[in-house]
User: Fold these one by one.
Assistant:
Number 1:
Amino acid sequence: AQSVSQHNHHVILSEAASLELGCNYSYGGTVNLFWYVQYPGQHLQLLLKYFSGDPLVKGIKGFEAEFIKSKFSFNLRKPSVQWSDTAEYFCAVNGFGSGNTGKLIFGQGTTLQVKP
Amino acid sequence: KAGVTQTPRYLIKTRGQQVTLSCSPISGHRSVSWYQQTPGQGLQFLFEYFSETQRNKGNFPGRFSGRQFSNSRSEMNVSTLELGDSALYLCASSFQGQPNQPQHFGDGTRLSIL
């Protein structure tokens, strides 16, 4: 079955620590990859996306992600987190042979808590 | 540019009732998708509409239905409500619903079933 897996459900870091959130998907075809963030009380916002080209993509607020096709992975990274990064992070994939549509399959989400 | 607008923000219903949720996409966006978000199941795709036609459907029972109007606004209906339908329902829009176009999400409608 088509699925997206996020390894960490709850991560607690101190400010200035480095962050890496794992995301794997189960599909060998062409996919489009996204990371969304949901800050407390706010709607889901796009952090970054990968469609093609350079597998290292940069997003907003200093986030970046690397697409490794051989590992079916799209991990999110940030060198130094801030308290304001406290939020829930979702990896999402579009593709899975769903045709020319916008259907997204989401991972379970990772709650990041940054301690000041 | 106004974002995706969902109404109402909160709803309380009882089992067996039906409910209609509304979504106004970003101006110019023609694709509207609906998702259900629960603590146990996470974010699950319900369906997508484009040019008033349902283009894709998730694995939800027939009690969940939707439609899209000529101005791209969309409604989602759930009939014979069950306790398990309590969730945050999110609407997302994109320009044409192409796979490489990001979805823009609304704040959601929180539905509680008593």
Note: DSSP finds no helices and eleven strands in chain B.
Number 2:
Amino acid sequence: GENVEQHPSTLSVQEGDSAVIKCTYSDSASNYFPWYKQELGKGPQLIIDIRSNVGEKKDQRIAVTLNKTAKHFSLHITETQPEDSAVYFCAASDPGTYKYIFGTGTRLKVLA
Amino acid sequence: GAGVSQSPSNKVTEKGKDVELRCDPISGHTALYWYRQSLGQGLEFLIYFQGNSAPDKSGLPSDRFSAERTGGSVSTLTIQRTQQEDSAVYLCASSPWVDPSGANVLTFGAGSRLTVL
């Protein structure tokens, strides 16, 4: 089955700087890669996603890139703000099933 | 409802007791998922429902765990004879439909935090 690894586990950046979180997956047949943001005491919320037929997708300050050959995808947050502080999870679709395999999460702290 | 609702938000129980966790998905969402989030871990898949059927129960950790969904809406996750290692946040998510391509957008509830003493 699919396996997803996520790095780093924690990340601290100064406000205004960029943050990058990286994930790798094992099954080349995976075709959907969502990113979720989880704030304290809340459930994860989808912030951006990408399908395997696209190499990059951008939504304002957030972008995701996908390298199918290397089987890795990354979340990029530019001009970080304190409200970006949260735990971010990457995920990959598990081929042949309707479930998603999640990474172990990255705790992002944006320092004012 | 406006979002996915889970209850209770917090549950403290003694080892060996049974617990029930409830999930109210977004109205009209046909797919429902249960995940478990342990401290410092990612989200671990437990079970998935399409309507009232559970085609994938592969993630249930043991036969102490069971889940059902009635009327294509509310789902209950039951843990019998709880153990300390069952302590975690149990998250429920729903999706409007099952996309054959696998690109289902999940909306998560806030979770039920279970503590087994």
Note: Chain A has a mean pLDDT of 94.
